[in-house]
Design goal:
Glycerol-3-phosphate (1)-acyltransferase; alpha/beta; 16% strand; single chain; 263 residues
């Protein structure tokens, strides 16, 4: 009996410690388990450091926006998001992600649901994902968006791709602060799996909330929405010391702008 007693006590202690840590994290056991896997991956494969203090808020809603060069980006951004929190705990960043990835392999679906991801159709007409995103922000949670809409495989070290105006609409509609982050040196690969097997050292640069007050009104023209989106993309690009690709304007708006400049 004594031989079995000590392993039972040890098991009880381990289980009790895990339960305590899960409750302390305040994010539920599934998200906590995902974080432990991510922490182990950072330890043995790709480390991730901070270049400055993290600006992700401890309380209240926020939209986290960043450059996108690797499938690992969400995991890297979540790594030390709680470093400046005053009390123990974590916050799940619910990322908007393409539905085809959300509904891929069973393990991907499980992780996506555990991390409270929001599936999005790429046709640009998915109002359900918009409603879910607004509801998440209304509940005081964090929403993650890559405004480039996909991996930047052309000039990731030179300039950002064109920003999607949808993130600007969400920010202005919800009133949530927009926190820019630039991910440096994330492992890159054409294979979604291979990048997780590459050793490397990534780092994060955080920015202050982007001031969108000048566009905070009931209705915006397409040009004003493009201007606000460019402001978001510029904030991300400046953190990485690279350029950004402006949102395309209509020929009419460009002619009006040229006329205003000449006047």
């Amino acid at each position: 009996m004594e031989i079995l007693l000590w392993p039972a006590i040890l098991l009880a202690v381990v289980v009790g410690f895990i339960v305590w840590r899960v409750r302390l994290s305040r994010i539920g056991w599934r998200a906590w388990a995902c974080y432990q896997v991510a922490a182990f991956h950072r330890l043995v494969m790709t480390s991730c450091s901070q270049r400055n203090a993290c600006t992700i808020p401890e309380d209240g809603p926020a939209i986290i926006v960043g450059n996108h060069t690797s499938p690992m980006d969400p995991m890297l951004l979540w790594g030390n998001h709680f470093s400046a929190f005053r009390r123990p705990g974590m916050r799940v960043i619910g990322w908007m992600m393409a539905r085809e990835y959300f509904e891929a392999a069973p393990i991907i679906r499980w992780i996506s649901r555990a991390m409270q991801c929001i599936p999005v159709d790429r046709n640009g007409k998915d109002m359900q994902s918009v409603r879910q995103s607004l509801e998440r922000l209304k509940e005081g949670k964090l929403l993650g968006v890559f405004p480039e809409g996909g991996l930047n495989e052309v000039d990731p070290d030179v300039r950002l791709r064109v920003g999607n105006t949808g993130v600007t609409w969400l920010a202005l509609k919800s009133g949530a602060p927009v926190i820019p982050v630039f991910i440096h040196d994330a492992p890159r690969s054409l294979s979604m799996v291979r990048c997780f097997l590459i050793r490397g050292r990534a780092s994060l640069s955080y920015g202050e909330p982007i001031d969108l007050s000048r566009w905070q009104k009931r209705r915006l023209s397409d040009e004003e929405l493009a201007d606000a989106t460019d402001a978001i993309m510029k904030a991300i690009a400046d953190l990485g010391g690279i350029g950004y690709t402006p949102v395309a304007r209509s020929e009419k708006s460009e002619a009006e702008a040229d006329g205003a400049e000449s006047a």
